[in-house]
């Protein structure tokens, strides 16, 4: 039995040839009423009441400045912009913010509305003309947009102008997070949410910030996989090609020649040299013109637990809805993901029992790859341990009773 702790990495360190076809949320759809504009201590600030922290640019006279969202205070979103103070006292400026166009005249380097002065303290200064309201763009129920790498869907009826992140956090959510961008699904830990490359092949590279000496691919649909490890100093240090085609040879020669070809959906490699900061590249190909799919690409550092006994149990836990009618027919059916679970008896040296139990316990809430036996693909489970128990059987050995609850 081996466990593999996934290595840490940054999303910016992922290079993928899977295109982004989803639509990004447009920050201009974030509404709100402008309350304060001014300069203070070398920083230019903007307060917007009732917005959703989604504004990105402001134009002062004829110059565009990028907005940086800092925080929310008393219902106002606080932004900063520019590298030096832009506003001086008793000066008029033309402002364009989203679809709002207005003119402000400052006093003391600031302009405030009476409402902002009441809510945030201070007194009204300066004057303005034009629209101070940045209109929101309403998106209808079921519309999907992404922010960063996360994908959201509108749940409000009939529509909403909320920013997805804050809308999903409301007591009555106007948005719900449904996953991540297609290219990042293979890294989110949910095996059923696959990254799909239309027409294949799929190639992805990741710079791992921690030690890596094992790689696994789960819930994939491909004919062949190539794994390569490259180090900045030592160049290519590992490459391996894995065939995922199962010709049915184990069932006999007839099945080998005349039976239908099947594909393995997972594989694991534990013979990689140990490197930290190396680039791991995976290429999945279909061998045809079909789509290539990958549910999880896992890479990390392995730890040996003990010898897995042959008497293990593997089961698939169904989460689909299958309800009978009053006549016994299955009419109410809803397909949902399936989770693999396994129960193992692992022979552990007496001197290793404490170490093994500690290794497992600290991963109680950390998704971890468990490999019962590399020769039995069904024992490859990505999930969580369920209260491991060690039973001393001799002075030299103990039996570890271990159940792994797999991710869907």
Low-pLDDT sequence parts: none
Number of beta-strand segments: 40
Number of helices: 4
Outline? elongated
Multimerization state:
single chain
- Strand coverage percent: over 45%
The description of the largest β-sheet is: 11 strands, antiparallel
Could you list some keywords that capture this structure?
6-stranded antiparallel sheet, mainly beta, 4 domains, 40 strands, 4 helices, single chain, Jelly Rolls, 408 residues, 11-stranded antiparallel sheet, Immunoglobulin-like
Give a description of the structure.
This protein is mostly beta strands. It is built from four helices and 40 strands. A hairpin with a 2-residue loop joins strand 9 and strand 10. The two termini are 21 Å apart.
List the helices and strands and how they pair.
Blueprint: E1 2-6, E2 14-16, E3 32-40, E4 43-49, E5 57-60, E6 63-66, E7 68-73, E8 76-81, E9 92-97, E10 100-105, E11 110-112, H1 114-120, E12 127-130, E13 133-134, E14 139-140, E15 144-147, E16 150-154, E17 159-160, H2 164-168, E18 175-180, E19 195-197, E20 202-207, E21 211-212, E22 214-218, E23 224-231, E24 235-243, E25 245-246, H3 253-258, E26 262-263, E27 267-269, E28 275-276, E29 279-285, E30 292-294, E31 296-304, E32 307-308, E33 313-318, E34 321-324, E35 330-334, E36 338-349, H4 353-361, E37 368-371, E38 380-385, E39 389-392, E40 397-406
Antiparallel strand pairs: 1-31, 1-37, 2-20, 3-4, 3-11, 3-13, 4-8, 5-6, 5-9, 7-8, 9-10, 10-12, 14-17, 15-16, 16-18, 19-30, 20-29, 21-28, 22-27, 22-31, 23-24, 23-29, 25-26, 32-36, 33-36, 34-35, 36-40, 37-38, 38-40, 39-40
């Amino acid at each position: 039995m081996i466990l593999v702790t996934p290595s840490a990495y940054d999303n910016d360190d992922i290079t993928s040839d899977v295109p982004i076809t989803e639509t990004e949320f447009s920050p201009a759809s974030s509404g709100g009423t402008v309350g304060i504009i001014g300069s203070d201590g070398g920083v230019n600030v903007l307060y917007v009441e009732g917005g959703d922290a989604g504004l990105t640019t402001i134009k002062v006279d004829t110059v565009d400045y990028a907005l940086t969202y800092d925080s929310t205070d008393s219902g106002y979103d606080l932004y900063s912009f520019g590298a030096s103070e832009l506003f001086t006292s008793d000066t008029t400026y033309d402002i364009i913010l989203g679809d709002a166009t207005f003119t402000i005249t400052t006093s003391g380097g600031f302009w405030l509305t009476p409402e902002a002065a009441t809510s945030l303290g201070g007194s009204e200064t300066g004057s303005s003309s034009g629209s101070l309201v940045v209109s929101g763009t309403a998106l209808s129920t079921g519309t999907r947009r992404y922010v960063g790498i996360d994908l959201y869907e509108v749940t409000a009826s009939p529509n909403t102008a909320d920013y997805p992140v804050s809308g999903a956090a409301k007591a009555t959510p106007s948005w719900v997070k449904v996953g991540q961008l297609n290219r990042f699904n293979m890294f989110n830990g949910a095996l059923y949410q696959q990254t799909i490359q239309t027409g294949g092949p799929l190639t992805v590279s990741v710079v791992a910030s921690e030690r890596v000496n094992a790689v696994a691919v789960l819930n994939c649909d491909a004919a062949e996989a190539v794994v390569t490890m490259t180090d900045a100093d030592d160049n290519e240090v590992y490459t391996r090609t894995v065939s995922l085609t199962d010709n049915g040879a184990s069932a006999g020669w007839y099945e080998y020649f005349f039976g239908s070809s099947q594909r393995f959906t997972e594989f694991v490699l534990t013979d990689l040299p140990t490197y930290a900061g190396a680039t791991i590249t995976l290429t999945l190909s279909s061998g045809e013109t079909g789509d290539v799919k990958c549910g999880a690409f896992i890479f990390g550092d392995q730890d040996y637990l003990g010898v897995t006994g042959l008497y293990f149990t593997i089961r698939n836990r169904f989460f689909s809805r299958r309800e009978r009618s009053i006549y016994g027919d299955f009419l109410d059916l809803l397909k949902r993901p399936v989770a693999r679970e396994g129960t193992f008896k692992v022979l552990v040296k007496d001197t290793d029992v404490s170490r093994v139990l500690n290794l497992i316990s600290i991963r109680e809430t950390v998704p971890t790859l468990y490999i019962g036996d590399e020769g039995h693909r069904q024992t490859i489970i990505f999930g969580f341990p369920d209260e491991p128990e060690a039973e001393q059987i001799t002075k030299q050995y103990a039996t570890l009773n271990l159940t792994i609850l797999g991710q869907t």
